[in-house]
Amino acid sequence: MKETVLVTGGAGYIGSHTAVELINAGFDVVIADNLSNSDLQAVEGVRRITGREIPFEQVDCCDREAFKRLFERYEFRSAIHFAASKAVGESVEQPLKYYRNNLTSFLNLVELMRDFHRPNILFSSSCTVYGEPDKQPVTEQTPRKPATSPYGNTKQMCEDILRDSIAAIPEMRGIALRYFNPIGAHPSALIGELPRGVPQNLLPYVTQTAAGIRECLSIFGDDYPTPDGTCIRDYIDVVDLARAHVAALHRMLEKRGTERYEVFNVGTGRGVSVLELVKGFEKANNLKINYRIAPRRAGDIVAIWADPSLANRELGWHAERTLEETLHAAWEWQCHLDRREK
Ligand code: NAD
Ligand code: WQD
């Protein structure tokens, strides 16, 4: 019998890539998503890549009764919880939407996992919990800073809910993966990121500028205290990130690790500036990006990158894809989307 994994938010960007890697690793997957920020085509993409009929349930994780029926229908021991609203700026304008969706869906998940004796929870956390760190690179011991957005606050709160629940439920295990900046797409170009409206994140803005959908990329600030004056991030390929979930899941299923609740950074350990990313994209795809230097964006931190050595050592996971491969895949995905539009 194959081990089944519930993937909430599995029609989304990171969830769909993780579903593929889970199936490649021999798991069965059930995807649950309310499609509030995704499209059924992503599920189709996962089916096409893997050649498998993956069960999809259109469920809102905030709807406890509907969510419960899914627990009654499927025998899984583990859940990966991607379902959440994720736009930092929107969370400042609509905090209640973020507290309602991200907290209610997660509380429902943890309670149902407890009630149905399903022991393993993998939670999508974020490097946003570190705020502006005092020292680079950040380790899991780097203190969390007060959240600078309601979105970030929900990530901190969900980490705490998971830690405290696991402490009180002896059969339960949990891992929070703190993602750095996920970018790229599956090399098949059948799944990738689907930004709604004007992209807020850097790489989707770059690919849309390259495609002529946006006229000009604004680089937010070139007077930061960094070598080229632009901000530094740790850009992690989405396929590498997806594989980190498989490694973390194995750790929980095999009950490795002395602690039942653990946290891991998922990054490359390499800091890349905005200008380096843009130049890298131009080189990887042999094209030019129209960009200008614009004022700093409010709330941006200067620099953050991961120390991923804990995940390297304990999960046996390493980021493998080169930045060039990642930037190439991102462009292939943009071209696929443009063809789909036409
Ligand atoms: P995404 O929006 O593409 O995926 C989230 C999915 O969850 C979407 O398909 C959406 O329809 C679904 N969803 C939202 N609320 C739901 C609900 N109540 N019930 C059922 N489905 C629901 O986002 P993503 O980039 O794939 O992010 C996945 C997770 O990773 C999120 O929790 C996000 O906060 C976290 N994360 C993302 C990033 C990033 O930069 N993309 C970085 C760190 C952490
Ligand atoms: C990266 C860099 C911008 C757009 C966000 C969330 C974080 C996490 C990952 C979920 C910054 C610059 C951007 C543009 C630019 N998500 N930029 N022009 O802000 O590091 O992180 O996504 O958990 O919580 O805050 O990512 O892609 O928005 O920005 O110059 O048009 O690119 O200033 O330096 P960020 P980003």
UniProtKB/TrEMBL annotation:
Protein name as annotated: UDP-glucose 4-epimerase
GO function terms (MF aspect): UDP-glucose 4-epimerase activity
Species assigned in the record: Candidatus Alistipes avicola
GO CC, alphabetical: cytosol
Pathway(s) per entry: Carbohydrate metabolism; galactose metabolism
Keyword flag Thylakoid: no
Keywords: Carbohydrate metabolism, Isomerase, NAD
Cofactors demanded by this protein: NAD(+)
Name of the gene: galE
